[in-house]
Design brief:
- It is built from seven helices and no strands.
- The protein is mainly α and 181 residues long.
- The longest helix has 34 residues.
- It is globular and about 45 Å long.
Length: 181
């Protein structure tokens, strides 16, 4: 039970760390990530949510609440358009939590769900910004020059970070949780 309580407090701390790391990586590597016409965005925060949903153990973290909080902070700190991430991130987190009930935990399943979460997030973000006329690129341009590069970047980060994050959760989750693949 002590391990479970430990994760309950560490999860939001690392969540905010990934939030700031997303921005820092996007800023530091902007010459590479945003080289016209391509645009790639790090989504470590969303990856942290997906990993947390799969590996939380018995800690009972309220992912939807944390997704709402980080969405508000994301809108305030990065986008300046309030309400977009406040609702998109919790929707994506709720989607992953629902699908999680029907699948086993394995590297491939978590990778596919992470990719689906990234895809859903990026498509919803693009759709909202198109609807409010803040995005002025065609859907084909978005898919070819932003969507696919972003997915590839985040898949690469997922492959590199999967085992260290899995090990972290294994060491901090509740002791009565079934082992995972």
């Amino acid at each position: 039970m002590l391990q479970s309580a430990k994760l309950k407090y560490l999860f939001p701390i690392i969540l905010f760390g990934t939030f700031f790391l997303d921005g820092a990586l996007n800023q530091i590597f902007s010459a590479v990530l945003f080289q016209y016409p391509y645009s790639m965005i790090c989504n470590l925060t969303l990856m942290w949510f997906v990993m947390g949903i799969f590996f939380e153990g018995e800690s009972q973290i309220n992912f939807t609440l944390w997704a709402f909080v980080i969405g508000i902070v994301f809108d305030w700190y990065y986008t300046g358009v309030f309400g977009v991430n406040t609702f998109i991130i919790p929707l994506v987190v709720m989607f992953v939590r629902e699908v999680r009930l029907y699948v086993n935990t394995s590297f491939l399943i978590v990778m596919v769900l992470d990719t689906l979460a990234m895809a859903l997030y990026n498509v919803l973000f693009y759709a909202v910004f198109q609807a409010i006329h803040l995005a002025n690129v065609s859907a084909s341009f978005f898919i070819g020059y932003s969507f696919f590069p972003t997915i590839i970047l985040n898949l690469t980060l997922f492959v590199v970070l999967y085992y260290p994050i899995k090990t972290f959760f294994r060491r901090t989750r509740g002791t009565n949780y079934r082992s995972f693949g």
